[in-house]
Write a structure and sequence with these properties.
- This protein is mainly α.
- It has a single domain, classed as Up-down Bundle (Ferritin).
- Helix content is about 60%, strand content about 5%.
- The protein has a two-stranded antiparallel sheet.
- Strand 1 and strand 2 form a beta hairpin.
């Protein structure tokens, strides 16, 4: 006979908003169709270092922390919500560039690879969770900067530059959370 169990979680997420820099985003537009640029952005969208990976990792961490670390869980969910907005903007750019939003990104060999939860870091304690989140944000910034060097479309680069500002802000917040442990 199985024992009935329940989870006591009084952490309310009502009214929570995306945590991001208080600056507008540039318009989502492109200078022209370019499938190569779309393929680069698909890596940012759903590659191993991607907005989809970040969202999933933040939601997982928030879920595991919400019972015992409600303020921290709220911060992680707010960051995850900002990452959802990044995912949406990247998806729009991919479509405008002539690409498909299908949760696959081209590998270095050129073949499509579907997003997988194997891309996530699922550490066993809070400090390691926050470190994994910081590492993922820093990796995303490096990847965006690399892609901006390859994409010669000022409209696309403007959106990526604005996303980077949020990622830098997220690193700052995550470091503050680390100090509070």
């Amino acid at each position: 006979m199985m024992e009935e169990r329940s989870l006591a979680n009084n952490c309310s997420f009502a009214g929570l908003k995306p945590i991001m820099v208080d600056l507008p985003y540039p318009p989502v537009k492109v200078r022209g169709v370019n499938r190569d640029y779309a393929d680069l952005l698909k890596v940012d969208y759903c590659g191993s270092v991607s907005e989809l990976s970040a969202i999933t990792q933040y939601i997982n961490n928030e879920t595991r922390l919400s019972c015992n670390h409600c303020p921290m869980a709220k911060t992680l969910l707010g960051i995850g919500m900002a990452e959802m907005m990044h995912l949406q903007k990247l998806g729009e750019l991919i479509v405008l560039l002539g690409g498909d939003v299908d949760f696959s990104a081209r590998s270095r060999s050129g073949r499509p690879v579907m997003w997988t939860p194997d891309y996530l870091a699922i550490p066993d304690n809070t400090k390691k969770m926050l470190m994994a989140d910081i590492d993922a944000e820093a990796g995303a910034i490096r990847q965006y900067e690399m892609h901006m060097g390859m994409i010669k479309d000022d409209c696309v680069d403007a959106v990526l530059s604005r996303i980077i500002l949020d990622e830098e802000y997220h690193i700052m917040l995550l470091k503050i959370l680390m100090q509070d442990l």
